[in-house]
Design goal:
mainly alpha
Length: about 475
């Protein structure tokens, strides 16, 4: 007997729907070609064919006939609606090649609509843009979103969705999001182009909401920090902080404070960095975000240690170590209790440095001190200078011209492994405040841990099909 596909084709021809028959026949041939190209190693090759599904054939027959009837009386709005029904149906069944085809037919038919129906052209561009974005074809998606934004901006009266949302705002949100994706694509090879995309994202975010604008400022601040333009990073993070406070977004406020502290550390403006770390601790306490509190007081303790405020440093690092141990805090980069323990040990050592140094120097003032004693003191002084360099900067080896690399490596290896904390120090990183940019390593990480906002700063919700 005849297959369901053959029966459907015959019915269309018998009823006089020659264009519908042609469209259905061509779609079937396209599916055959695509399967052959994919090959037998592809899962697509073995997927059920559209022509084998009675339900899908029925949907195609019904709405292709409706579109052909509407074309005969030049009712292009009804043509658009028929194709839109098919596009949405095949999007639900995950036959995306078919949904793409009918979204494109929606766009083609929308260009012949009357002036009062031009919103459908905007919707068609939005739908195609969303489909392209889902396939990570961001440049092509941006073109359709730009057209959607242009049409919505010119609309008089303004276009609104059934739920009351303005189409200009929706188009701006789509554009802001896709420009972030383009910026991430461009970052490694073309940082300046990446910055330009984020500037475009910011311009569109201003038409969405204060929170979206703030996140866009934050992304720009992150990329300026990554490209070592710390002053611009501060300007943009400050703008994010202002908008987060205005919208009472405590998680955003915390993220801005942390980013500002990192930027000021990069400029070696320690007092400003200290100020924003203290703000971060306070806001994180209000948010009951123990992980961020632990990170804030740990970094604050390291900073005070570097500035020679040893008693305060030890108190903070002790608290950080206790929190990480008893709360069992972890972040995405480290098993942090080991790091906290190492930092606490270093802080305690520095706090006892003055008394230890005085004791060492007293050796040479004792009656009967020998040349060996003096040599031992000089060796210990050199060791202290080297350990200071781990915090304060570069270390210059004595008599560098007379010391070969092997001797330097041996000296370093012998010295690092003191106090039993070297392995933990390697795991947790050096005791430099400037190395604490881990939580902002991606240019679009827009919210402190615990927020529901995803890596691109978007809320993870895909826009509805119009």
């Amino acid at each position: 007997g005849k297959s369901a596909f053959q029966v459907t084709c015959l019915e269309l021809l018998e009823d006089g729907y020659h264009k519908s028959f042609t469209e259905l026949f061509n779609l079937n041939e396209q599916e055959k070609r695509d399967r052959e190209v994919a090959g037998k190693d592809s899962g697509y090759y073995y997927d059920p064919r559209v022509s084998d599904s009675d339900e899908k054939l029925d949907q195609l027959k019904t709405f292709l006939k409706d579109a052909e009837d509407a074309k005969r009386i030049n009712d292009m709005g009804r043509v658009y609606d028929a194709y839109l029904n098919l596009a949405q149906y095949f999007e639900e069944t995950q036959d995306l090649w078919l949904s793409d085809r009918f979204y494109q037919l929606c766009l083609d038919s929308s260009k012949d609509l009357r002036a009062g129906e031009r919103q459908k052209e905007g919707d068609a561009n939005a739908n195609i843009g969303l489909a392209l974005e889902a396939r990570e074809k961001f440049s092509e998606a941006a073109k359709h979103f730009e057209r959607y934004f242009e049409l919505a901006s010119r609309a008089n009266p303004p276009w609104y969705t059934m739920s009351g949302d303005n189409h200009v705002k929706i188009a701006a949100e789509h554009l802001s999001r896709v420009y972030v994706s383009l910026a991430e694509e461009a970052f490694e090879k073309a940082k300046e182009r990446s910055i330009q995309y984020l500037k475009k994202s910011l311009e569109k975010a201003k038409k969405v909401s204060a929170q979206a604008e703030g996140l866009a400022f934050f992304r720009l601040g992150n990329i300026y920090q990554k490209t070592d333009d710390h002053q611009k990073a501060i300007e943009h993070h400050q703008a994010y902080l202002e908008r987060s406070r205005h919208t009472q977004d405590n998680k955003g406020t915390a993220a801005a404070c942390e980013a500002l502290s990192i930027a000021y550390e990069s400029l070696k403006m320690w007092e400003k960095a200290e100020q924003y770390l203290e703000m971060l601790e306070k806001v994180a306490e209000q948010n009951d975000d123990k992980l961020v509190v632990g990170r804030a007081i740990g970094r604050l303790g390291q900073l005070k240690n570097m500035l020679g405020k040893f008693e305060k440093s030890v108190a903070l690092l002790d608290r950080s170590y206790s929190m990480h141990t008893f709360e069992r805090l972890r972040d995405e980069h480290h098993a942090v209790p080991a790091t906290a323990r190492t930092q606490y040990g270093m802080g305690k050592g520095n706090a006892q440095l003055d008394s230890m140094t005085a004791s060492i120097l007293a050796i040479t003032t004792q009656p009967g001190a020998t040349a060996v004693d003096y040599a031992a003191v000089e060796t210990i002084k050199e060791l202290i200078r080297w350990k200071d360099s781990r915090i304060l900067g570069e270390y210059t080896y004595p008599d560098a011209a007379d010391t070969d690399d092997a001797d330097r490596d041996a000296t370093t290896a012998a010295t690092v492994n003191d106090g039993g904390g070297a392995e933990e120090g390697k795991e947790g990183g050096q005791n430099s405040c400037e190395s604490n940019g881990d939580s902002h390593r991606n240019l679009s990480e827009a919210v402190v841990p615990g927020s529901e906002t995803d890596a691109t700063g978007n809320n993870g919700s895909s826009a509805e099909v119009h």
